[in-house]
Design goal:
Pfam families: ACT_7. One of its GO terms (biological process) is amino acid metabolic process. This is CASTOR ACT domain-containing protein. This protein has 390 residues and is α+β, with helices and mostly antiparallel strands. The chain has a single domain, classed as VC0802-like, CATH 3.30.2130. 29% of the residues lie in helices and 24% in strands. It is built from 11 helices and 18 strands. β17 and β18 form a beta hairpin. It is globular. 38% of the residues are buried.
Length: 390
């Protein structure tokens, strides 16, 4: 496996929104999606004017907005959660406000680029060292990359777990590069100064057994939604759009210091119009991921494709089936879920047939995404494991 794992700058906040409150909170979600709008409501002297987590061209370093049949889930820079989302939340009546969960712990984002391994194998290889180190994670597979959320407080354990797996830490201490053949030494096995309350699993079989025992205890079921078919797509590279449309003259005569106003010239405006249209429709399923080094990535209900016209690239003729695991009854500190579920599915199928397996973690659910044939086999594996007395 040829992989690089990097820490993205900043800390991030995870937000759970019940579906019945999604329309109520759509406006702050759109304000987060469109950072251009944020400066309009504040004076330049206020701390809200310069929100963190944006790139030099005022786009999000990382943002995920996911609407599924279970919930709406958001991962955004903590600065945006505090200064944009929470004021809107505080304006709601208390019962509505209490139904929304803004996670107190902040998260780091690990960005993973890799080659030479199928998506199912990547989920396993990337989640397993963290699972065996007892680190809770959220995993997001996108069109180009994989992203892993880990609690900020666990950074040192994450570093040690990756080093023990054979990753090398770069000079700037933010990147891990290609793992190589590696024999751990005594210092690598000390994954935490404070030993976990429960000893970590010793092998894959034990990890999987623990995972399904936990899911069974909380009565988690694997289910599919009737007639819900997904496609994984991407927006186009912005430089390709520039070549296609040419450079648009600026309407502004302001100095380059007011660079925020040029945000619109650095995105595909057609794609963003389509994304807003899809979000306003309260889609059945839409997961949007923005990351600074990738074009926008979308995993969406196939019935939304007409909204996007020709603004997407990817296999729009293909069909992916999501299998949902409602994890609302589990603690966010639960570990090994991603690795345990993915590992059991890979084990139960021909590895060559599991290449399309990908995973989406939202705040209170896990979604395994597979081809239609693979999803049938996956349900045959998961259903008995999640049925009491079987």
């Amino acid at each position: 496996m040829n992989a690089q794992v990097s820490f993205l700058e900043g800390t991030y906040t995870l937000i759970h929104i019940p579906l019945d409150l999604y329309p109520t909170l759509l406006q702050p979600l759109l304000r987060i999606l469109l950072p251009q709008t944020q400066s309009l409501n504040f004076s330049r002297d206020s701390r809200e004017y310069e929100l963190e987590g944006l790139t030099v061209d005022y786009q999000h370093g990382f943002l995920n907005i996911s609407i599924t049949p279970i919930e709406c889930s958001v991962v955004c820079h903590s600065s945006w959660a505090k200064n944009v989302f929470e004021p809107a939340l505080n304006a709601l009546p208390k019962p509505l406000k209490n139904a929304v969960k803004v996670y107190k712990d902040t998260y780091m984002i690990l960005a993973v680029t890799s080659a030479g391994l199928d998506p199912g194998g990547r989920v396993m290889e990337l989640s397993s060292p963290l699972a065996f180190a007892g680190i809770p994670i959220f995993f997001i597979t996108t069109y180009y990359s994989d992203f892993i959320l880990v609690p900020t407080k666990e950074k040192q354990k994450v570093v040690q777990a990756l080093l023990a797996k054979g990753f090398e830490l770069s000079e700037n201490q933010s990147n891990f590069v290609n793992p190589s053949m590696y024999a751990p030494n005594s210092s690598d096995t000390d994954l935490s100064q404070k030993p976990p309350s429960t000893p970590p699993p010793s092998n894959d079989d034990e990890l999987q057994a623990r995972t399904f025992k936990l899911l069974l205890k909380h009565d988690v079921k694997a289910r599919v939604e009737p007639d819900l078919e997904l496609v994984q797509c991407s927006g186009r590279e912005i430089n390709l759009l520039t070549n296609a449309y040419g450079h648009r003259p600026s309407m502004s005569r302001k100095s380059s210091a007011d660079y925020r106003r040029s945000w619109i010239t650095h995105v595909d405006t057609k794609l963003y119009t389509c994304i807003v249209s899809a979000l306003v429709s309260q889609p059945r399923f839409l997961s949007l991921t923005l990351a600074q080094d990738d074009p926008p990535s979308l995993l969406l209900d196939k019935t939304l494709l007409p909204i996007f016209d020709d603004s997407l690239v990817g296999d729009t003729e293909g069909v992916l089936i999501p299998i949902f695991l409602d994890l609302g009854g589990l603690s966010s500190e639960s570990t090994g879920i991603v690795c345990g579920v993915a590992g059991r599915l890979v084990k139960g199928t021909d590895m060559a047939e599991s290449s399309e397996l990908s995973y989406l973690s939202t705040s209170r659910a896990g979604t395994v995404i597979l081809s239609r044939v693979q999803s049938i086999r996956a349900l045959e594996i998961l259903t008995p494991l999640l049925t009491k007395g079987s």
